[in-house]
């Protein structure tokens, strides 16, 4: 089965109008997941601290393709969890719990996502989509 549906379809140069809604959604999810600033920054690909805090405060700015791709995976992970766990508290807690499934090896999904590699966001998204039957 092709996995092309998992990879966000992003233009070579992200459209500036995508930045503000993407950042608003990302920071809303980060708040729901109770992420520390360092964790949220890591999920975004470790932008400079000044850039991160500017994005967090204004929830707008210029985003590169890598950052937009990362946000897209986070949105997909969030959506999959909302589908799998209709109780928002349970859905939001899932990423923090240890998981014995092969992609996690006893660590949490958040631990996997915080490795810094965009591929690890992809792995978590793929795992959740498989659990949904996609």
TrEMBL record:
Transmembrane segments: none annotated. Pfam families: Xre-like-HTH (PF20432), Xre_MbcA_ParS_C (PF09722). Residues 17-75 form the Antitoxin Xre-like helix-turn-helix domain. This is Antitoxin Xre/MbcA/ParS toxin-binding domain-containing protein. InterPro entries: Xre-like_HTH, Xre/MbcA/ParS-like_toxin-bd. Residues 80-133 form the Antitoxin Xre/MbcA/ParS-like toxin-binding domain.
